[in-house]
Each structure stands twice: as C-alpha cells, then as structure tokens.
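<goal> How does this chain fold?
<body> The protein record starts here
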Amino acid sequence: MNFQPLVRFLALFSAMALTLFVAYFFFIFTLFGGGGRFYTPLVLVITVVLLVFEVVFTYWRSKRRLLVKLLQGFGVVCVLAVAGRMTHQAYHGSFAVVDTEVDIRKYDPFRPGTLAVSLDEAATLRLEGDLPRLDGATALYPVYAAFVRATYPEGDYGSYNSVVQCTKTGTAYDRLIKGQTDMIFVARPSQAHLDMAEELGVELILTPIGREAFVFFVNEQNEVRGLTTEQIQGIYSGEITNWRDVGGANQAIRPFQRPENSGSQTMLQTLMEGKTLMEPPTEDVVAGMGGIINQTANYRNYRGSIGYSFRFFASEMVQEGQIRFLEVDGVAPTRENIANDTYPLSTNLYAITTPNSKPQTEKLLAWILSDQGQEIVKKTGYTPIQ
C-alpha cells in the first residue's frame, strides 16, 4: 500500500498549521503594537505567500528549484520594504516636534527641585482649611502651581488626585460647570463650553490674570516672514495650498492643527470668523491596552509646515533656531507687542470661577491680581495683565 500521498498531505498540513500559528502571533503583535497600516498587512501577505508556496512545493516537485528562488526573491522584497519603512519613519522622526504639553510633574508645587517659580519674599496671603479646588490647562499649570506654592500649606498636591489638578482645558471646563472644582486657569471658553454652561444654568466668571500671544510658526528656513489674517484663514480653510501664493517658495503647505476643544484650537476657530476649517492631518498612535487610535497629528517641522500654539510652548524652539514666529498683519509677537496689545492675536489668560466657588476662592483671585501674583505670572513666562 502506498502511504506516500498521505505522508505528503500530513507534512503539508503540519507546515501550514505551523505557518498559521506563527502568523497569528505576529498578526496580533503588529495589530496592537502600532503597525496596523504597514506591518499587519505585510504579515498577511507573507502568510498567504508561504501557504501557497508550501502547497505548490509539495505537489509540483519538478519546479522546486524555481520555487525556492522565487521565495528568496520575495524575501528580499520584504526586507527592502521593511528597510524602506524604517527609513521613512526615521526621516519623519528627525523633524522636531513643537511640544504642546508640559511635563507637569516637574512643576508640582512642593516637589524637591520643582520648576514652579517662587517669590523673593513671603506671600501676603496664606490659605488654610477648606482650600479652593484648582484645575486648568496644561500650559497654565506652571503658573497656578506657583500660586499654590506661595499661598497653600505645604503638602502633596498631585496633579490628578488632589485639590490641585491639571485635567487640560476641555475637562477643566466640564468640571467647573459641574461644580467639581472652584477655579480653572484657561484660555477663553469654546462655544461648546458656553452652550454647556448655559444649558446647566451656570454663570462663568472670567477674570483676566495675564496676557499671551497666539502665534503661528514655520520652519526657520521658510522664506515667508509674515502672514495677514486673511492669508491664515485661506491656508486653514484649504483655499491657499502653496507657499508661493503668500510670497514663499513653490512648496506645498502642511497646515497642522490641534485637538478639538483645546485652548489653541478654540483660538483658531475664533480667528477663522465662521469659515470652515479643513480636515487636520491625522496619525495612528498606540493607546491604552495596546489599541490604536487615529488622532490629530502633532506638528512636525517640515520645510512646508505651519503650526500654531501659545507663545509659551514654542519659545524654546525659537531660541534654538528651529522654528520662527510669523508676523501677523505686520506685527511680531514680542513681549512688548503683547503687553501694548499691538500684536493682533494677543489674548487674555483667565482664572474662571462660578458663583458657587468656595469662599476662599475670591481671596486667592484678589491675590493673583496683586503685585505678588502678577510677579509670578511674569516670572513663569507670561505677560502680566497689569
């Protein structure tokens, strides 16, 4: 009895089962490891090719040498594809990113070696007892952490689980409107937050505590030195797509945006004066539990890029000569122009409260507007409101 066909079939079945077993783990690893757009499809293609090869190799014995050469060629193509992908990622990773986040742990009020600034004298206000609950934007945490350092009792004020939190602009507004905090430090509210407050019958009391510039920036090598408000609106509505149309080189414009309800995105929406924003560039990022989410892409300093932020975030990269702030309507975003309000995109930074805020909140707010509080605003890197 000839068992050769059965042996051949069992060998093929075993090889295919092993291929599928290994491919399954590579598939899961790439799918949840951030390679969903390249490595996961590549694993699927390799798996299919190997399965076809195993079948043909088993039953087409006269062409085995040719099949092996074809498989080797396919392997070379795969290696080149991976090398090209890695080179592409390294190229894009080489462009600096304007970091729109602050490592808030470094500014914890009483952390040893904290970066939160301090006064040269004792504060004229010391709070005790039922302390005001604070929250706000990441960019302003260095400011209100310094307020806490000056006026609160020494203690552990973790930025996510204490009376002094930093949940970012959108969440901070939500918490204030719902009565979960007493004072937030943010830029002006978005229309969505105004609508939410009105719906819940909550009055938002906006008190300016400092000044900041909403700035646009480009690669240092970009020839364009400034834009008009109308040109910015044209770029971010998609009407202007090439730098040559605004006095620069013949190069496509890459207009980056910020996430919805962030302070800077709200500023851009206000600047657009009702014009529709184009869809922002997006990127896949690894999220919690190994999942992949598609989010608004961070600014990368390509030759054709344009981005925006508050001046506080981007100043270091300007000093390093990587990006350049653009003039807007012929005025540069210098501290002097922010203070005298000649820069057209100067904006107030607010401490926002409600009528239901704790009693000591008013004391803290009055002190923030005093000479000592304004000194902290200035030393942190913003422009005092006075």
